[in-house]
Write a structure and sequence with these properties.
With 450 residues, the protein is mainly beta. It is built from seven helices and 21 strands.
Length: 450
């Protein structure tokens, strides 16, 4: 339906063009030019959801028990460029100040720790850096960044970068070069497995990220970077190589750069309020209605906001939203009150029945300040160290209450059921600690469009 509507819109442009070119009168040409000036095209928000595999060399020496030369991880990525927040795959943040070409951002970034996958749960998987970023757009192509960062251990480092963006046909290429100053604590934590003491130093990193538009909303993604380790790291007996390399390859769904929209996006924003109960059952058992009740009756309450991104994907009527959420895990006899923070991209498909019914699915990332009982007990059974950061999935089905009760004033209200799911993608993700398992909650919700 949407594809036909789009073709109809193109036809409405072509037909007047032919007519105007064949018309002998000057007034008809002026009328056509005025029509073109009055026609408006709208850009929908920039967004993307991607799945990539990252392969990196391991710089550590065999003398310290490191026999693997590379490590691979699966990395889901989200992209969004908004007025207040941004997501750039391995990092995200908030614009604290933005004026013309200058930005001051608070950022959070995944910090890859490239050790053998077999050690990433026992020693600890990737960590997270956070700090401030000053970004200046030099012109349409080039930009500079200065990052002041630290990790949870208080290891301080700064990163100065210059990058560019080249758009040619179906290709989008982003080369980047950076110099990072690592303080003494950083070098000793990440580059020193022995007894020597390292001082501070400078790393140099160069590389690029690329995106190729295959068709419609489908893109291929890739990238490659090389890091020349600082002089203190290179002299460490723990380090086996002066250079460390990393390569990314995957695919994703993004805005169709070839498409111009004839109408503004009309999807409503929404607020969703849910309440649910923990279950030790996995998703397969839940979908087969073979779920088991949590013996301690652990519960959560969540609030999610939905910001519309597009109303179609591959010319199908799929409504796509960016949806951040806050989750409160209630205290019980086995856990205290806990807080969870989520950001995800959500897709809805609506069945236009007499009572409208929607299926929904979200993919994102979840952070919790302390593992819940239902999650920690599974980690204990399987012998894993749990992770506060995990992949987030949300499965939903809901009905429109206005249609159900034939009440116009309730047509913006939906009643639904959802599965609130945290997991680590079957030991494939170093950023989630190489674990298998997580937690599930059955929830009911009301969603209000506005």
């Amino acid at each position: 339906m949407y594809k036909l509507a789009f073709l109809g819109f193109i036809s409405s442009l072509i037909v007047p063009t032919v007519w105007a070119n064949e018309s002998p009168t000057e007034s008809s040409d002026k009328t056509f030019q005025l029509t073109l000036q009055e026609q408006k095209q709208y850009d929908y928000p920039e967004w993307g959801l991607a799945a990539l595999v990252r392969n990196a060399s391991i710089p550590y020496s065999v003398d310290f028990g490191v026999e693997d030369s590379t490590v691979t991880t699966f990395f889901p990525m989200m992209f969004y460029n908004g007025e207040h927040i941004f997501l750039r795959g391995t990092e995200g943040g908030v614009h604290l100040y933005k004026h013309d070409d200058l930005e001051l951002n608070a950022i959070i970034r995944n910090h890859f720790i490239d050790i053998p996958s077999s050690l990433q749960n026992s020693i600890g998987g990737d960590t997270t850096d956070y700090g401030a970023q000053l970004r200046y757009q030099l012109n349409d192509t080039y930009y500079t960044e200065l990052d002041l960062m630290t990790d949870p251990n208080g290891t301080f480092h700064t990163v100065g970068s210059i990058g560019a963006q080249y758009h040619r046909g179906n290709w989008l290429v982003r080369p980047k070069a950076s110099v990072s100053w690592r303080n003494k604590k950083y070098n000793n934590l990440y580059y020193n497995l022995g007894d020597e003491t390292l001082d501070s130093g400078f790393d140099t990193k160069v590389g690029f990220a690329a995106r190729y538009h295959v068709f419609d909303n489908l893109y291929l993604l890739g990238g490659a970077y090389g890091t020349y380790l600082n002089s203190e790291a290179r002299k460490s007996a723990s380090i086996n190589d002066e250079w460390q390399s990393e390569v990314y390859l995957g695919f994703g769904f993004f805005n169709n750069v070839e498409k111009k929209y004839a109408e503004p996006l009309s999807l409503p924003e929404y607020i969703r309020v849910a309440h649910g109960w923990a279950t030790p059952s996995n998703i397969g058992d839940i979908l087969r209605l073979n779920r088991v009740k949590d013996e301690y009756n652990n519960k959560l309450t969540s609030v999610f906001y939905g910001y519309p991104l597009t109303d179609e994907l591959f010319s199908l009527p799929l409504e796509i939203y960016l949806t951040p959420g806050f989750v409160w895990h209630w205290s019980s006899q086995v856990q205290d009150n806990l807080q969870e923070y989520v950001i995800a991209i959500k897709a809805y498909y609506t069945f236009q029945w007499p009572v409208r019914t929607r299926l929904g699915f979200a993919e994102g990332v979840s952070y919790i300040n302390e593992l819940t009982y239902i999650e920690q007990s599974e980690m204990d059974r399987k012998g894993y160290q749990g992770s506060e950061w995990l992949n987030y999935l949300d499965f939903t089905i809901d009905i429109n209450l206005g249609d159900l009760f034939n009440e116009k004033h309730m047509r913006n209200v939906w009643l639904g059921y959802s599965i609130h799911h945290r997991s680590a993608i079957f030991e494939s993700a170093s950023q989630f600690g190489r674990i298998k398992g997580g937690s599930n909650y059955n929830t009911v919700y009301l969603q209000f469009d506005f």
